[in-house]
Design goal:
- The chain is of the alpha/beta class and 214 residues long.
- The protein has helices at residues 75-84, 103-115, 130-137, 174-179, 183-200, 203-213; strands spanning 8-12, 26-30, 44-47, 64-71, 90-95, 116-122, 141-146, 164-167.
- Helix 5 (183-200) packs across helix 6 (203-213).
- The longest helix has 18 residues, at 183-200.
- 31% of the residues are buried.
């Protein structure tokens, strides 16, 4: 019923996509891809960060090389688990998807991400992961494992400067890639993340970027 001659925009978080028709002049700001079930016709689909409730950056000793606590929602996660299970300096816990998250599970996740030099951020049901941005918040270097990358602000941000980028075809090399990173390189990633955080990865920053795009 909307006037198709006018311009619109909408914001979506679900990786399923939008399940109804949009006016043809609609710009979609999507956190999680172009949609799994319902491809849509629209003016443009623009990536924005997949963020949730902000996590506090608690500065504690980083005694874990890398970690992942989450659900088995993509084959690359299963492959990662098989690769990481025998590594003493890696924490990898994965179960089936569940809509409920107990306080115990949340506390374990937050503890792990704060203690980890790197946080494994394999794509899941959608093409990206909340962990990519949670790691940035918590002072851990994200390791984004992707097939088709869903990354915002590519005109402004060189993503390989603030996270380790690994294509799913190279997932077997993940541990060796991380292990080879020097303290100076880690500091470089964290410095870039801190530089971009307020302007691009907070709710206010994201809102401002949407307005700027419009």
């Amino acid at each position: 019923e909307l006037d198709d001659s006018k311009d619109y925009f909408t914001v979506i978080q679900s990786s399923n996509g939008i399940n109804f028709n949009l006016p043809s002049n609609t710009t979609v700001f999507s956190c999680a891809g172009e949609g799994v079930y319902w491809p849509i016709e629209c003016k443009a689909i623009i990536p924005i960060p997949l963020v949730g409730k902000p996590l506090e950056n608690i500065r504690i000793e980083k005694d874990i090389l890398c970690s992942f606590i989450g659900s088995n929602t993509h084959p690359c996660r299963e492959e990662l688990k098989n690769l990481m299970d025998d590594k003493d300096d890696v924490l990898f816990q994965m179960g089936k998807w569940d809509f409920s998250f107990s306080q115990t599970r949340i506390a374990a996740f937050e503890n792990a991400i704060h203690r980890s030099k790197f946080t494994l951020c394999p794509r899941g049901f959608g093409p990206t992961s909340y962990r990519l941005y949670e790691a940035i918040q918590c002072g851990s270097v994200p390791v984004y494992i992707y097939d088709e990358p869903w990354l915002p602000y590519t005109n402004d941000i060189q993503w390989d400067e603030l996270c380790v980028m690994i294509h799913v075809d190279d997932v077997r090399d993940t541990y060796e890639i991380i292990k080879a990173k020097t303290d100076k390189e880690i500091e470089g990633y964290l410095s870039k993340a801190e530089e971009y955080y307020e302007e691009y990865f907070t709710f206010t920053g994201i809102s401002n970027q949407i307005i700027k795009e419009l």
